[in-house]
Amino acid sequence: MDMQKIRNFCIIAHIDHGKSTLADRLLQFTNTVTEREMQDQLLDNMDLERERGITIKSHAIQMKYTYQEEEYTLNLIDTPGHVDFSYEVSRSIAACEGALLIVDASQGVEAQTISNLYLAMEHDLEIIPVLNKIDLPGAEPEVVADEVIDLIGCDREDIILASGKEGTGIEDILNAVVEKIPAPKGNADEPLQAMIFDSVYNPFRGVEVLFRVFNGTINKGDKIKFVNTGREYDADEIGVLGIVQHPQNTISAGNVGYLISGIKVAKEVKVGDTITHIKRPCANAIKGFENVKPMVFAGIYPVDTTEFEELRASMEKLQLNDASLVWEPETSAALGFGFRCGFLGMLHMEIIQERLEREFGMTVITTVPSVQFKALMNDDTFKLINAPSDMPDPNLFKHIEEPYVHASIITKSDYVGPVIQLCMEKRGQIKNQVYLTADRVELIFDMPLAEIVFDFFDKLKTISRGYASLDYDLRDNKASKMVRLDVMLNGEVVDALSAVVHRDKAYEWGKRLCEKLKELVPRQMFEIAIQAAIGTKIIARETVKAMRKNVLAKCYGGDISRKRKLLDKQKKGKKRMRQVGNVEVPQEAFMAVLKLD
Ligand code: GDP
Ligand code: MG
By its UniProt entry, which InterPro entries does this protein fall under (predicted)? Predict the structure, then answer.
């Protein structure tokens, strides 16, 4: 294929600014999809994604577009829109020469827009600015255009006005893609060098690998190798993606395609890896490859302890199609057998939890999520802390280090005060404050990741009445005074309720948690002491008083069926209870830590 007739591009947009709607319009306009095939939000095809309105996995789609009587091949590469998936975004961007920058004309530029835009600019992508939703009565194209001009230094005439809803500006966008985005460079005769930018799990056909060829040509049946994993495969099927797959015999430099080679496990396919030929390999792997690392760790336990093996089987299946999920078996005195899992972030964790429940019918308890801390031990080695139980004895280490992020928050000037206050409460340090317009401010903070992963974003939304957007990326580790906080019920530590927290916050955390548990732990035949402790030091205490009467007492002499009903009811209640020492703890108690405010 003539490389001069190929354009590879992605769409950069903040969530809800209209990326999916516009993408659908482009497919419609180019007749890639017929009216009949047209569903809302074609690119978001997983149920979960559709409900959340987030494109979780990036896909690619090829369109044919005739411009000045020449046919062009346009490859649209979809990028995930959430910070948990920023490495995937960076690889999708690396597969393109240009990007549509879509900004909602009624909302203006948001944090996610800026971070992804910077990524695109780092990769020298040609940026085509588009103001979307100009049909909205609240749209302020003039004001938002000023923001965009400030941001990318374009001319006002370069900005395309569009409405995904009404279909305006679609042809202008397609023309700009052809006119402004450079054709790919590369040489089809050189050794094969193709980058994997995504993979899609298909239970019947194995993993479908999406790639962009930079140099060389891949042919059906070729013997190929993934450079970073060192694994070798046969290219059983290659092709390009429309609404359905279109198998091809060759795909050469500049183009985008899919590969099927019987790979059964998602983990074998690493985004960012390079595909080359076994016989005539390329000299270098494509730059920018990283092994994605989990950022958030939590225990997952079956509510019903007899379902452990079933949970294991479900986790194994999930892992087949989710390369970023990691787990290993773990035991908890309170919860029994379960798994310590690593996630890319909180959204990823919620997705896994939901998929376990929906796709596998499991009911699970998730323990307090935690980031990965590192202890600098007395012998100068580092010990990784993925769970409170990994925390070494304070006499054995010099200090604990925790991951810090660089966070960007964009809000209205009215909310600058409350936002700064919230960030300081979360141990953040303000680094910069930039006025994007008279009314909108970007605030930059250094913050501990541990403070962001919980409910930070919800709090931010609340204090700013929804007018705040957040983006962050991981920077470095800093020494922090972290301690392990334990919760005891009648003197017995409930391991599933332990957490690693900052010393200055431990007292507050312990107090709130004890109060919350007091509400949740039902009265029993004896008094229950709820205590929070750091080491042997008790820092908070609450008491659940003993029950005054036996529940059955009121049934004495009463009819037997009523008694049986009561007992049955108790038994049902018990199913969701866990025995800790002599205390019965309801399942919600283990989640209480997540809801401390
Ligand atoms: P994404 O999150 O960026 O993919 O955004 P979507 O395409 O899912 O759009 C988010 C919401 O905005 C949906 O409710 C769309 O119907 C709506 N929307 C998208 N484009 C337009 C537009 O041009 N005008 C109006 N009024 N609404 C739009
Ligand atoms: Mg979308």
Answer: EF-4, EFG_III/V, EFG_V-like, EFTu-like_2, LepA_C_sf, LepA_CTD, LepA_IV, P-loop_NTPase
* Contact assessment for residue 375 and residue 385, using Cβ atoms and an 8 Å cutoff: yes
Measured between alpha carbons, how far is 259 from 519 in angstroms, rounded to an integer? 55
352 in a labelled binding site: no
State whether ipTM is beyond 0.95. yes
Question: For ligand 1, is residue 18 a contact (CB within 6 Å)?
Answer: yes
By the 8 A CB rule, do 17 and 107 touch? yes
Decide: 216 in ligand 1 pocket, CB within 6 A. Answer: no
CB 152 within 8 Å of CB 117 = yes
Pocket test for ligand 1, best of 21, 134, 173 (most atoms within 8 A of CB): 21
Q: CA-to-CA distance for 470 and 451, rounded, in angstroms? A: 13
134 annotated to bind ligand: yes
Residue nearest to atom 6 of ligand 1 (CA): 18
Cβ-contact 349, 299 below 8 angstroms: no
484 in contact with ligand 1, CB cutoff 6 A: no
**Burial class, 23, CB count within 10 angstroms (exposed 0-12 / middle 13-18 / buried 19+):** buried
Q: What is the pLDDT of residue 376?
A: 96
The two most distant CA atoms of the chain are separated, in Å, by: 94
* Section 84-96 average pLDDT: 87
Report the alpha-carbon angle 431-437-439, nearest 5: 90
- Is 477 a residue whose pLDDT tops 70? yes
Percent of the chain with pLDDT over 70: 90
Ligand 1 centre distance from Cα of residue 164 (Å)? 7
Rounded CA-CA distance 230/274 in Å is: 10
CB-CB neighbours of 593 under 10 Å: 22
C-alpha–C-alpha distance, residues 8 and 57, integer Å: 18
Segment of 59-63, 177-181, 447-451 carrying the highest mean pLDDT: 177-181
* pLDDT digits 0-9 by tens, 259-315: 999 898 888 899 999 999 999 999 999 999 988 888 899 999 998 889 999 999 999
Whose C-alpha lies nearest to ligand 1, atom 2? 16
pLDDT tens-digit series, residues 123-156: 999 999 999 999 999 999 999 999 999 889 999 9
Contact predicate 181/9, CB 8 Å:
yes
Question: Is 30 a known ligand-binding residue?
Answer: no
* pLDDT tens, residue by residue, 91-125: 999 999 999 999 999 999 888 788 788 889 989 99
Report the C-alpha gap between 23 and 104 in whole angstroms.
15
* Residue 81 alpha carbon, nearest atom of ligand 1: 2
Name the residue of 16, 24, 44, 160 to mutate for ligand 1: max ligand atoms within 8 A of Cβ: 16
Q: Is the pTM higher than 0.80? A: no
Average pLDDT of 207-219? 96
**Residue 18 labelled as part of a binding site:** yes
